[in-house]
Amino acid sequence: MTPFETDEGLSGPVITSEAPVLDWWLLAPFLVVFGAGVLAVLFEAFVPATRRRGLQIATASLALLVTFVLLVLQVGTLPEEGATLVAGVLAVDRTVLFFQGTIAVLALISLVLIAERRDGRDAFAAQAATVPGSEQERAHIMAGSQHTEVYPLVLFAVLGMLMFPAANDFLTMFIALEVMSLPLYLLCGLARRRRLFSQEAAVKYFLLGAFSSAFFLFGIAMVYGYAGSVNFAEVRAAAETGGAPIFEDGNGEPLLLMGIGLVAIGLLFKVGAVPFHNWKPDVYQGAPTPITALMASCTLVAAFGALLRVFFVPFGGSFELWEPMLWTVAVLTMVVAAVVAVTQRDVKRLLAYSSVVHAGFILTAVVAASTDGLAGAMFYLAAYGFTTLGAFAVITLVRTRDGGQELGDIDRWAGLGRRHPGLAGALSLFLLAFAGIPLTSGFIGKFAVFEAAVAAGATPLVIVGVLSSAVTAFFYVRIIVVMFFRDPEEEGPTVVPAGMLTGGVITVGVAATLTLGVFPGPVLDTLLPSNEAGPEPVSVMVDEASLERTAP
Amino acid sequence: MIPWLTIAIALPAVGAVVVWALARAQAPAADTAQRRRSEAATGGGTDTITEVRPAGPAAVGAENAKRAAFVFSLATLAVVAAMALRFDTGAGGLQFEQTHEWIPRFGVHYAVGVDGISLVLILLSAVLVPLVMLAAWREHDDREDGGAGYFALILALQAMMVGVFAAADVFLFYVFFEAMLIPVYFMIGRYGRGEQRAGAAVKFLLYSLAGGLIMLVAVIGVYVVGGTFLWVDLVGPGGALAGIETELAVWLFLGFFIAFAIKAPMWPVHTWLPDAAQASRPGTAVLLVGVLDKVGTYGMLRYCLELFPSAVSAFVWPVVALSLVSIVYGAILAIGQSDMMRLIAYTSVSHFGFITLGIFALTEQAQAGAALYMVNHGFATGALFLVVGFLIARRDSAEIADYGGVQKVAPQLAGVFLVAGLAGLALPGLAPFVSEFLVLVGVYAFNPVAAVVAVVGVVLAALYILWMFQRAMTGPTPEHLSGLKDLNLREKWAAGPLLALLIVFGLYPQPLLDAIDPAVERTVQIGTEDASATDGATAEEGGEG
Known about the structure:
- The structure holds two protein chains of two kinds.
- Chain A is mainly alpha-helical.
- Chain A has one domain (21-540).
- In chain A, 67% of the residues lie in helices and 2% in strands.
- In chain A, a hairpin with a 4-residue loop joins strand 1 (83-85) and strand 2.
- The longest helix of chain A has 33 residues, at 195-227.
- The radius of gyration of chain A is 23 Å and the shape is globular.
- The two termini of chain A are 39 Å apart.
- Chain B has one domain.
- In chain B, 73% of the residues lie in helices and 3% in strands.
- Chain B has 22 helices and two strands.
- Chain B has a two-stranded antiparallel ribbon.
- In chain B, a hairpin with a 4-residue loop joins strand 1 (95-103) and strand 2 (108-114).
- In chain B, helix 14 packs parallel to helix 20 (448-473).
- Classes of the chains: A mainly alpha, B mainly alpha.
- The A-B interface holds A 417-419, 421, 432, 435-439, 443-444, 446-448, 450-451, 454-455, 459, 462-463, 466-467, 469-470, 473-474, 477-478, 480-481, 484-488, 520-521, 524-525, 528, 530 and B 24, 27, 31, 34-35, 38, 46, 101-106, 144, 174-176, 178-179, 181-182, 185-186, 189-190, 197-198, 201-202, 205-206, 209-210, 213-214, 216-217, 220-221, 223-224.
């Protein structure tokens, strides 16, 4: 008799005969974004080209705004222990709401960058389906046509991002991952200028992303084999009792180990931790800068939200199993990325590596596996998101003199601080925040994650962290040197006027960076969990298979 | 009750913003003018731009901005002086205390308060800033902003200098300690001298930042162990850190110490200072060496010794050895320098060796001497840097070889140079003598051999100062120096007060010592308890608890 035939052994996924109770109120944020995305596709097909763009922008921004308002309202009505939705596939608690709210706000700001036009043209290809350099492409550009599929794509990606940290079982998480990633792959290839470069980035991202998804899926299979369920709470419960009933005396642990490892690969790929970071520089550089901003802020928040949930809820009881792995990955991430970043010349590549280093810092909080660590990571992500959006907004403004495409080569930014002190000053502030200088949000974030790590006994990790911070400071400071301490060159860049949209993004970035740096108290105290709720992070997260009433 | 310290921090901070805004108000005009000029200068490079002096609204705007900055610095000095008069030298502990919650989650407070040592250092910074501004008034006339940005940076730096000495919360101290780097970084990199300034600024920033980040780990450690950042709750026999294990204390001590040693700067982590000083404007160098580096030695006294008394005994001899190396090494290298700014920087390495030696000798005289040394060194080195600045303003060079026989054409300048130099070599009658003497006496009581080695530094000091004076100021006046102008009124006002202070405190150091002594008694108690424990019987662990 094979184990699979026993009654107590593995059973297939339970398909209930009764329809689950749908909590429309808690589902509303997802539905609003999804509905807006579907509408946007219809607009793309049926609305006249002249009115399409305005309508698309209005729809997308309204949807994100409504989503954010709904999320804020939900904080008040949510039960203390959280809730699950749709037969327990999604979980909503305050942690998830924080991630979702952050994603909504950051996505809204990214949308502003995406909507910005220069000389009547978007940052995106006029007609993405045409071959770069072909007659058709030229015809489209001459005709001034502009497809606006970018807006529905962004909405679908945001839907995936909202679901990713809220998933309550592995399959839902996988679906969220794909919903998030597929539009992003496309968005990366939509750049108006240097289209081949952009498409190359998209293909790379797609191939590597598909690869990592496969790892993730394979990991889910292992976990399912071990626990007999894909539900987070049930996996956690199974791990506590040594696996599904078919395993005697815990001999199923290899399955769990493989599962954790493979699932981790999928998630670490999305956050861009070493050694799964290779896509980041290429993709960040090739993608249209507004999309890079979206990925650097929202995707990172969503991916870390999911990673924290996976490691703290289903794998929370298996801390000893994954701690050495994450420890190693965190050290590698902080060291390798910091060292490689020193040699970078292109500002977008440099920020990509910087984002990898930041992922390493946040991983130290994951290794801490405490509620304070969770809170530190949450603060770090929000702070980093605003700062990085501001930084990319500045990058969209610095262009070459001829042709007017973005000028990424840092060495040619000489003297920018003399000619445009406001803009260069804002970028310097963002860079100092990345470097973690006090009175910026970056410092508070760094302090929060490092404090949690030291409190959890991971002091060596923190020492590696501060040393790599010192290395990263070198290349942030170098940009400031080039901008402020060198004389302007004849062939230097031009800076297009910021305009209301991009200027607004930069202003928001500066304001958030300073406010979170000087008065972080309100956010830290009211929005984030603390060890008082329980030292284990799972105590502030939903860890029930289902908290719903079943239909009568 | 008047929040003196908060006013002293806020006033220059507000001033920095006001000055920056005043400078910005004229910036667009200056910006376009600059661009026009740079476009006109096609082949000649950008050097030709600097020949053009700004005229019209930009220059007037810059002048007003600088005047505003000067007024703000004087107002700060007045506030600090008023506070100093109200300081009760009889009372121990912190005075003018204020405590407000800042980041409750991490137990961070905006807590300020001063004891005698921090008070005199705040006074030092408040005195130096207006003088530096006076000296630097015409330095940046060839820039598009006329130096207004530089003055705004000075004010920003002053706010942080007051803050760093006034902080009574470890986190707040760390915030000021790190944030202070940014204005200095721009003062060197953007407004500095020579081609190497960007490199020197980066070197300065990275050294300090690396030290600061290591300190961050220790700061976090203090919080994790002690559960609070408030200095008054952490220190003392009943403090939160009183019962920690010696091994842990040693590690935390080390974390703080590395940062302070880099700041101080102590051999072998001093290499950033000569580069930074050479690339600095003299005014920047005055504040950098005169005040900023004191944060290192001040931190050793206030944080290393007082927070981790049980670890002190493990560090006494290593630090004393490093101090002695600094004293001799700095002095010998100073002799070999051809650039006056570098030379003074190396003399400072030597002098900081005296200060750290005095702190870690753990006798009352030595520590009082060290604390006094911090102030006196600020005045003496400040005066020296300013005089070199006057020379640079005249002939755009700090090379000793470019000068000679200056005293014939500019006797007043040479006179100021001589007095400042003699103060630097601790001539009796001038302020540094008192402090150096106290340190040596105190160190002799601690260990005669160490005192003898330190005296080598005193002898070498005479050599490097007098030899520099001889080469630059005496002898025949070369042709190109014949038209050298003597000090003008502005420069006299910049250097005069420093010379007066050097003489007054040389003859009558009592007011400073009165302020310093109670604070020193506190730290020495910590040190000697522990030192006697190790001297007497090594078996006995540190005597607190």
